[in-house]
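Query structure, 263 tokens:
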């Protein structure tokens, strides 16, 4: 699938957006997980772009090709303002969103703040800090990576994926990201249930069966209870980090069916 690299100026710097798919197709925005970049959608973008114009930005402050040459991103609202500015500059007035991990939090909170009618459908892949907090074991295993990034992140990834075989190119990219200076770490904050009750768009929550970052049972129960139009599903035999690419055919089918229903 041919990819067009678009550089979008904003008050926070220049954002690199990778776009693919028919230009006149309905837009679908992909938001990657924290401390990653748009390359994490390598197993999904081409399939989704058959029927959608896919836009995959490198989140500002993360180790991608976006440059933080403007105002520093210091708060959650700064990050949300950045995303809103990018979509406005791209002239995307109505779109579907799909986010993974922290990108799912960003997609969800953006949808909660966006003007009525500007968000069609929302897909959240093993979303963190949306419906449940991090598991204590996850926080414990994250600590070494904060102290010694290169070695600690490898150990954390080995723990979270239970030693699964990972795509070597993705693993090399993940390791490289730990060596790149990044912006301030911004943690998500769970939206209040009353706010989630007001989200009047269809939401697909896809959980990783072997996710170790949170309790997927808790996430499933709270998502079903608080979102008025929720579909909660589980992708088997994958962990949190592996959900976009370990079973791509199954995930892509789920996403394609969900977003095709919108069309």
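Result returned for the query:
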């Amino acid at each position: 699938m041919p990819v067009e690299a678009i550089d979008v100026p904003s008050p926070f710097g220049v954002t690199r957006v990778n776009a693919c798919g028919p230009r006149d197709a309905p837009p679908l925005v992909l938001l990657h997980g924290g401390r990653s970049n748009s390359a994490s959608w390598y197993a999904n973008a081409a399939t989704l772009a058959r029927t959608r114009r896919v836009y995959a930005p490198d989140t500002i402050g993360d180790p991608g090709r976006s440059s933080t040459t403007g105002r520093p991103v210091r708060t959650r609202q700064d990050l949300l303002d950045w995303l809103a500015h990018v979509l406005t500059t791209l002239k995307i007035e109505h779109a579907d969103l799909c986010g993974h991990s922290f990108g799912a939090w960003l997609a969800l909170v953006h949808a909660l703040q966006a003007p009525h009618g500007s968000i069609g459908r929302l897909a959240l892949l093993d979303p963190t800090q949306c419906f449940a907090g991090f598991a204590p074991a996850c926080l414990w295993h994250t600590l070494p990576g904060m102290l010694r990034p290169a070695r600690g992140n490898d150990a954390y990834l080995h723990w979270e994926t239970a030693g699964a075989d990972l795509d070597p190119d993705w693993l090399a990219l993940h390791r490289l990201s730990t060596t790149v200076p990044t912006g301030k770490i911004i943690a998500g904050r769970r939206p209040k249930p009353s706010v989630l009750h007001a989200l009047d768009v269809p939401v697909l929550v896809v959980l990783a069966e072997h996710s170790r970052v949170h309790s997927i049972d808790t996430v499933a129960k709270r998502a079903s209870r608080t979102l008025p139009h929720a579909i909660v599903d589980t992708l088997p035999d994958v962990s949190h980090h592996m959900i976009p690419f370990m079973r791509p055919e199954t995930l892509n089918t789920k996403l394609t069916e969900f977003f095709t229903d919108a069309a």
